[in-house]
Design brief:
The protein is α+β, with helices and mostly antiparallel strands and 423 residues long. Helices cover 41% and strands 20% of the residues. The structure holds a DNA duplex (18 and 18 nucleotides). Pfam families: DUF4113, IMS, IMS_C.
Length: 423
DNA sequence: TCTGGGGTCCTAGGACCC
DNA sequence: TCTGGGGTCCTAGGACCC
């Protein structure tokens, strides 16, 4: 059996560890620029605030019901996440970190242990030490763990945070209850196709011929069906180095000056380079994109992206910055109101296995010591203390004022690397 | 006034090879 | 008259996840 440990409304729970008085009140956490809602307490959900709700549309409601809202504090969330992982993994031999607020535990080999009781101990331990409430869903496959977790959350009084989905009878009952769109791996598009074909519950999908599923959903669908039947198709993954790194942001205000956009894009490129060096890889591809505000139908729309394959893999901020600049020049058009831009790097090779083109000058190795020194100084003295001349050094992204509790937290903790998948 | 920021995997089609 | 077939690699786009 696997267990899925899922932190309840994780970002909000993290905020509550800093301020106990938030307990029992409606609380939301907002994305960058305080744009939209990314985490909601139960009380906030009950007020009808949907996930990803644009904050400006709900301002009145927030005021009316005294909803507390916070800007995201990712250092805090990453730190708490690591604490939860450390506690959970101490109970098992094998585990998989699935996201910032979820991890799978391998319970095979626990034949003679009362799994239910054991998972209660994990849950209580996490709550006692870290003040983070979790739900645990237990089942023979990952997909069924997700279902079990959903059941825990939908029937809180009945299950008290833990549910085991093990017998065929329980599985059948659960799948006849679960809407198809809530199955792990069914997104918005597939949900529509499912409804069109009369599939409304997870159970209905199992009644469809395999060929049909294969045609509509590809190989995912076949795996999904087996997983729902309790036949294991997905193993626990061991942590793997990233295959792409992206730094993208929406701007607080729309930008019309070329140099302002350039400065941001160059900064994004530098962040990408830093993250490449952190995992000791070089990239062979760089992509730059810019776009206008797609919600402003009154303004002309423009979006473009361009990718360059590098002759020699690199993680030098200087070399990547140069490429980013060229690409930016190639796609930037005057006369638009830019709202968002980003840099994405991919196609990685380990730093020490680079194959060098014979015909292109390669200065990566000259840059590396300087870059590593820059990284070390930034680590010691704070983010962006040492930077390239092209960066303005201004804080270009908005963030609300930090609470005193959070300032205290930042001072008192050595923060772990922020390399989790989001959420 | 104001709408997030990351990631992964799969597939179809084209280029190219013999 | 008649115009191969199989394979790989790459890329863009689409789907999904949190």
């Amino acid at each position: 059996m696997y267990a899925l440990v899922d932190c309840n409304n994780f970002f909000v729970s993290c905020e509550r560890t800093l301020d106990q008085s938030l307990e029992g009140k409606p609380v939301v956490v907002l994305s960058n620029n305080d744009g939209c809602v990314v985490s909601r307490s139960k009380e906030a959900k009950d007020l009808g605030i949907p996930m990803a709700a644009p904050a400006f549309k709900y301002k009145e409601l927030f005021k009316q019901h005294d909803v507390k809202s916070f800007s995201a504090k990712f250092e805090l969330y990453n730190y708490k996440s690591q604490q939860v992982i450390d506690i959970s993994k101490s109970y098992v031999m094998d585990y998989e970190i699935y996201s910032i607020d979820e991890l799978f535990l391998d319970l095979s080999g626990f034949k003679y242990v009362d799994i239910h009781e054991y998972c209660f101990k994990i849950k209580d331990d996490i709550y006692n030490k870290e003040n983070i409430p979790v739900s645990i869903g237990i089942a023979p496959t990952k997909t069924l763990c997700k279902v079990a977790n959903r059941i825990v959350k939908d029937f809180p009084e009945q299950f008290n945070g833990i549910y085991i989905l093990d017998t065929p009878e329980k599985i059948e009952k659960a799948l006849k209850w679960l809407p198809i769109e809530d199955v792990w791996g069914i997104g918005r598009r597939l949900a529509v196709k499912m409804h069109d074909s009369g599939v409304y519950k997870a159970w209905d999908l199992l009644q469809k011929p395999e060929m049909w599923v294969r045609k509509i959903m590809g190989i995912h669908g076949v795996r999904m069906i087996n997983e729902l039947k309790g036949i294991r198709q997905l193993e626990l993954d061991s942590p793997s180095p990233k295959k792409s790194i992206a730094v993208t942001r929406s701007f607080m205000e729309m930008l019309t000056a070329k140099e302002e956009v350039r400065e941001r894009v160059e900064t994004f490129g530098m962040y990408c380079s830093e993250r490449l060096r952190k995992q000791n890889t070089c990239c062979r591809m760089v992509t730059v994109f810019v776009q206008t505000n797609r919600f402003r139908k009154d303004l002309p729309e423009y979006r473009n992206a361009i990718t360059q394959i590098l002759p020699n893999p690199t993680n030098s901020s200087i070399l990547i910055g140069r490429v980013v600049n060229e690409l930016f020049e190639a796609i930037y058009r005057d006369g638009f109101h830019y709202k968002k831009a980003g840099v994405i790097v991919n196609d990685f090779v380990p730093e020490d296995e680079r194959l060098i083109s014979l015909f292109e000058e390669d200065t990566q190795n000259q840059h590396l010591p300087v870059m590593k020194a820059m990284d070390a100084m930034n680590k010691k003295f704070g983010k962006d203390k040492v930077r390239l001349g092209s960066m303005s050094g201004e804080n270009t992204f908005g963030r609300a004022q930090l609470s005193p509790e959070y300032e205290a937290f930042l001072k008192s903790n050595t923060l772990p690397e922020a390399n989790f998948r989001f959420h």
